């Protein structure tokens, strides 16, 4: 059972990044975890979870590409920061979950602290994005963007300090009683997620005529809830049932990816690009119809040129004055219709 301020039951159930660094000098070891594989003499832990991390990075790159293509959508610059943070978190998780950076290495606490700070900053970014649609500050402006950036930076810095101070037993923090770390690692994400969900439901009911985005919110909430339940309640059961091939961390990572994808799907469904000012990747075909240029019902497109094949500019050749004002040159006419300069 999860106790407030304690990682004991949590780490005994799930192999979290911070578990080897808290509780005791040796950390807290999970009761069951997935098997490792050996690649070129290197043991890779959580191989199935690492595969989901790689898939998450690829999917995030696709989502970022589509967000960047919606040039005039509301909150585009704000929401894209959340996906950048999520991609960095997944990249760092590959090295921490897999054991590429060993827990015994002196750099592991620092990477774990950075990971903790990035997770807290990502949830802060999601929380602030929940209020972008209310237009307290116009989206895309320096005020909106710098408020988001500085808020995430502040949360990252505080979380980083708390994490590394807890791991190193400095500044009054203790890895045996990691209350502050528990708040930023377990409680803070739940608070941010709940506020974001409530704010988006209020936004949909108050400002939108379309109710379909509620389905995206429901699915995203369901995936997030399932991820927490599987990780903290059924991880050991799953691990034992599948004979250590995968554990709850695999399904947690997968469900979190699906919930992040629903965040994108929801944002995409409530934003409509202003086509009048958008810039697409496809060439725009402009059709000009002027009744003065043609008679009757048919309009004739004039593709002719007054220069009869002459180039628009003559770089390295004769100038315009020489071409049009010079006396005619009697000589041999070349293949392109111009005098070659040779006399008869």
From TrEMBL:
Keyword Phosphoprotein set for record: no
GO BP terms: cell wall organization; protein folding; protein transport
Record key words, sorted: Cell wall biogenesis/degradation, Endoplasmic reticulum, Membrane, Protein transport, Transmembrane, Transmembrane helix, Transport
Gene Ontology MF terms: unfolded protein binding
Entry-linked InterPro entries: Chs7
Membrane topology: Multi-pass membrane protein
Compartments, as annotated in UniProt: Endoplasmic reticulum membrane
Residue intervals passing through the bilayer: 44-67, 79-96, 108-134, 146-167, 179-205, 217-238, 244-264
Any single GO CC term annotated in Swiss-Prot or TrEMBL for this entry: endoplasmic reticulum membrane
One Pfam family per UniProt: Chs7
Assigned protein family: Belongs to the CHS7 family.
Name listed for the protein in its UniProt record: Chitin synthase export chaperone
């Amino acid at each position: 059972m999860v106790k407030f301020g304690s990682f004991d039951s949590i780490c005994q159930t799930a192999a979290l990044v911070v578990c080897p660094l808290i509780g005791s000098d040796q950390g807290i070891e999970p009761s069951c975890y997935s098997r490792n594989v050996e690649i070129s003499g290197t043991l890779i832990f959580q191989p199935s979870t690492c595969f989901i991390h790689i898939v998450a990075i690829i999917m995030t790159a696709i989502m970022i590409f589509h967000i960047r293509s919606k040039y005039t959508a509301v909150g585009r610059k704000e929401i894209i920061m959340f996906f950048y943070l999520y991609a960095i978190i997944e990249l760092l998780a590959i090295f921490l979950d897999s054991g590429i950076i060993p827990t015994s290495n002196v750099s592991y606490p620092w990477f774990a602290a950075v990971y903790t700070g990035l997770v807290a900053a990502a949830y802060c970014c999601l929380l602030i994005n929940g209020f972008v649609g209310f237009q307290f500050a116009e989206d895309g402006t320096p005020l909106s963007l710098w408020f988001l950036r500085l808020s995430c930076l502040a949360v990252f810095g505080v979380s980083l300090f708390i994490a590394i101070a807890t791991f190193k037993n400095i500044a009054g923090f203790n890895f045996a009683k990691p209350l502050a770390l528990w708040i930023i690692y377990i409680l803070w994400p739940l608070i941010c997620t709940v506020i974001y969900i409530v704010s988006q439901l209020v936004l949909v009911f108050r400002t939108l005529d379309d109710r379909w985005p509620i389905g995206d919110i429901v699915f995203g909430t369901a995936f997030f809830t399932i991820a927490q339940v599987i990780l903290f309640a059924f991880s050991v059961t799953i691990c034992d049932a599948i004979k250590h091939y995968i554990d709850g961390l695999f399904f947690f990572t997968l469900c979190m990816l699906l919930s992040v994808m629903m965040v994108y799907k929801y944002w995409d469904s409530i934003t409509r690009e202003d086509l009048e000012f958008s810039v697409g990747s496809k060439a725009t075909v402009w059709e000009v119809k002027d009744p003065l240029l043609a008679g009757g019902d048919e309009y004739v497109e004039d593709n002719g040129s007054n220069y009869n094949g002459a180039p628009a500019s003559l770089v390295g050749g004769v100038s315009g004055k020489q071409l049009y004002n010079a006396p005619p040159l009697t000589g041999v006419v070349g293949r392109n219709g111009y005098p070659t300069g040779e006399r008869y």
